[in-house]
Structures are given as structure tokens and as C-alpha cells.
Amino acid sequence: MSQKGAGIDLDKSLGYLLKEASSALRTAMEEVLRPLGMSVTHYSCLELLAQRPGLSNSELARGAFVTRQTMNVLLQTLEREGYVTRPAEAAVGKVLPARLTPSGRRSLEKATVAVRSVEVRMLAGMTEAEQAHAFRSLQSMIGSLRERDEDAS
Amino acid sequence: MSQKGAGIDLDKSLGYLLKEASSALRTAMEEVLRPLGMSVTHYSCLELLAQRPGLSNSELARGAFVTRQTMNVLLQTLEREGYVTRPAEAAVGKVLPARLTPSGRRSLEKATVAVRSVEVRMLAGMTEAEQAHAFRSLQSMIGSLRERDEDAS
DNA sequence: CAGCGTATGTCAGAATACTGACATGAGTCA
DNA sequence: TGACTCATGTCAGTATTCTGACATACGCTG
User: Domain range for residue B36?
Assistant: First the structure.
């Protein structure tokens, strides 16, 4: 912070760079997913379900970083198109565990290949050690940002 | 990549973590900017103009990672509310250089303090060296992601 | 048991950002 | 000069996501 009242120097701000990186990643993902007729949120939902079958709408929303309302309309679409199934009524409480259909699994496979290629490209030029370091740094930032939120609630 | 066809392990994916960090940062910024009646994009625009007066609509859009159409409606709002001024017609070409008004500068000052506190909180627990390392890693990722885009165009 | 706080699924409306399209001006090149 | 390409500002329509609100279901605590 060498400047007094000149605001935040965007060229040196980690926050700005984080936003820039995230934007570049999202754009790159959109590019490879578009030919498959799939959006990033769309893909995120399927990938989450593949790894943790039975996740509820709200849990999927948190995992994809959208509101549960947004995830709900997406799930309804995916359900209508036959990629996902949910029981008609909850076995316990209101939670409706969602699962991939075989069709959904097939659709996801192609998308995963595409997304993996983007991630590989993103990490090109970084050593394993650098990647591990970046991983820890991002985790540290996330943890620090969330500490205060919990206090507030 | 130790797994065969099980998709991308979200718990170990730098891409997922990047999205998570960016989401946490955006949420934290929204929290501190809301009391000031300002959105993140709103703030980004003002901050960009403070540091690089005379930026055009399209340049601002690129700097804030939105389309120029989106930035255009935002600029029209900011202009109507007296935070920004643009000449009625272009001196050369179609480019209309935008500038902050004194009112816009005052509004930005408060927002900058709030946003800076978020960035400070995010970096708490990281040494200068770690921050520098993270900075280089993010720059590397951005560069790698963009290389291919340029080839495609 | 009754009350309270919390979490969920869902509907509806508002805000936000995007894609598509058009006209205009600058630069390049034959 | 004329044709072509590219970038810009802007309008319109669409899509996506969010905020607000409600009913319901669980767990805890007195």
C-alpha cells in the first residue's frame, strides 16, 4: 500500500487478479462446453452428482455457488430432459436426493473430457510444487474470507 | 490424474478451488458494498476510472470482465446519477472517454475503504512471499488460458 | 408437549448480464 | 480512391441469476 488515497492498485491487487483468473477460466470452459450444448452451471451440477450421488437441491446449490432457487430451476430442466431423477416425495423431511440417469452420465463423460483439457491447459507451465502452493494459498484466502461471515451470522 | 473415468475430483481441482475463492471474494465484497448502495460491477467501474481516467466504454467493459453492452447501461445509469461524465460527442472516432465527477470520486472513496478491508482480510495469514507466489501463479494460469483463445481468433 | 430456530423445496417477480444486430468511424491494402 | 476488416457505441430482446416470500419438516430446549 504505497499509495495514500489513490484506491486499490488493480495491477497489483490479488483480488483483481483472482477475478481475472476466474473470468478466464469460466470463458474457457464456456467455449469447450458450448459445442456440447451445456453451460458451466449445468456441467457443475452433473459433476457434483457424479461424485456425490444423492445430493439434495440445496447441497448442489452450495457446491455450484448459486442460490438454491437457481439450482432448483436447473434441476427441473435436467429432470425434464432425462439427465437426473428425483423421487416424487421425500423419504424423510423435505430433502429430495438427486441422481444421474445413464443418459446424464453419458452426457457428463464428454463434458468432463473437455473441462479436463481446460484445466490441464491452465496448469501448463506450473510445476507440481507450484500447483500445490497455489492450492494452499487459495484455501487460505477462502478460509480467511469466510471467518468473518460466520461471526456475523 | 490417478482416476480413470471418475471425472474431475473437485476436492483436488485447482479450477474448482479458483471458482470457490472467487465466489467467496465476490460475496464478501457484496456484503460490504451493499450498505453503500453499490454493486461489485458498479464499484469496479468507478475504481477503473479513478486509476485510468478517460477510459472508453469498451475498455471499461474489458477491465470489469463484462460485455460492452452491460457496461454501457451501467455507464448510462452512473451518468444520469452524476457520478460520471462523458462528452456528448467523440473528438475522434466513436470513442467517448469517461471521467469521474467529484461526486463519483467521493462515492468511490468510501467503497475503496470497504473493499480494501476485504482484501486485507483475504490475505491475512499469508506472508508477503506467499502473496507474491500466489500472484505469479494466477498470472501464469491466466496466460495459459488465453494462449489458445488467441490462436482460435 | 409447545415454542423456537434452522433448513429445505418451491413459486413469483425483479435485477442483472448476455447474445444479436445495426450504423458509424478508423486503419489497411491494392 | 474503393473495398475490406476491425473496433466502437447503442438499441432491443433473451437468458440467467438473484431477492422475497411461503409452507413445511426437523432438532433442540424449556
Answer: 14-122
